[in-house]
Structure formats: C-alpha cells, structure tokens
C-alpha cells in the first residue's frame, strides 16, 4: 500500500482544480494561476492609479502607489494559490518575503520608468500603464517562479 501524498493545493486551488474542463486548466499551470492573481492585483493597482491621477497626482507617483497596493494583494494570492506548498516557515519565510518584495521592487521600477517616460511624451497614463503591465508581468513572473518560490 503506497503512502498517500498530502494535498499541496490550497482550498481555493482544490476548488478550481475540480472545475470541469477547460476551466480546470486554470489550476494546472502556475502561469495561468499567476495570470489570474495578476489580474486581481492589477484591478486594485489601476483603480488606485486612476483615483490618484483624478486628484492631480503625478502619474509616476500614482503608478507607484497603485503598484504597491497590488503587491500586497499579489503576495496573499501567490503564497496560497499560485505557488501552493512553496511557502517557507520561520526565518526562511522572512527571506522568501524579502525576495517577493525584491521582485516587486523590480516590477515597480519597470512600471514607474515606463509610465513616466510614456506620459512625458504625451501618452495617456492608462495606455502607458498597459505597456508597463506587459513588460513587468513577464519579468516578475520568471523571477518569482525560479527564484522566490522555487
């Protein structure tokens, strides 16, 4: 009788994994789970960006604030749904959180640089943010998958 492996998926992950095909594919690949987490985080990010820009905040600063709010939301989703069973304990958890913040800073730098540069040449902040999202998404995903949550 073989030993049964403990379930590594979160409760949310188990629910998504039991959905009928093709919806269950959302749980099969970490990139699709990461994309879903990013969409949710992005909703918080862009909402804050647009609110702050509406209050005449500099677009670069507004993008930094929005991205920072999205970071917190993304950690909560990533650590429980995107990379289940990969969250460390004790001191290793603190190092993992630092790595997550480091990748967030990388994404923040990419975002602020792109939004600032593109709005400076007259592109609307929301369009500039869209460009930044694509570039930042792939850079941060790769560093999190192969660095932070390996």
Automatic annotation (TrEMBL):
Domain of life of the source: Bacteria
Protein's membrane topology: Multi-pass membrane protein
Keywords tagged on the record: Membrane, Transmembrane, Transmembrane helix
GO CC, alphabetical: membrane
Pfam families per the UniProt record, alphabetical: GtrA_DPMS_TM
Ranges for domain GtrA/DPMS transmembrane: 33-149
Compartments reported by the entry: Membrane
Residues annotated as transmembrane: 34-53, 65-83, 95-115, 121-142
Protein name: Putative flippase GtrA (Transmembrane translocase of bactoprenol-linked glucose)
InterPro entries: GtrA_DPMS_TM
């Amino acid at each position: 009788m073989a030993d049964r492996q403990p379930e590594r998926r979160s409760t949310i992950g188990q629910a998504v994994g039991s959905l009928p095909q093709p919806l269950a594919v959302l749980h099969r690949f970490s990139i699709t789970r990461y994309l879903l987490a990013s969409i949710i985080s992005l909703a918080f990010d862009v909402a804050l960006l647009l609110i702050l820009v509406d209050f005449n905040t500099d677009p670069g600063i507004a993008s930094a604030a929005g991205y920072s709010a999205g970071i917190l939301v993304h950690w909560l989703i990533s650590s429980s749904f995107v990379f289940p069973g990969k969250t460390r304990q004790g001191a290793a958890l603190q190092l993992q959180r630092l790595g997550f913040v480091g990748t967030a800073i990388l994404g923040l730098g990419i975002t602020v640089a792109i939004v600032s540069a593109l709005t400076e040449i007259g592109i609307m902040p929301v369009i500039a943010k869209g460009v930044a999202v694509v570039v930042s998404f792939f850079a941060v995903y790769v560093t999190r998958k192969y660095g932070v949550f390996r």
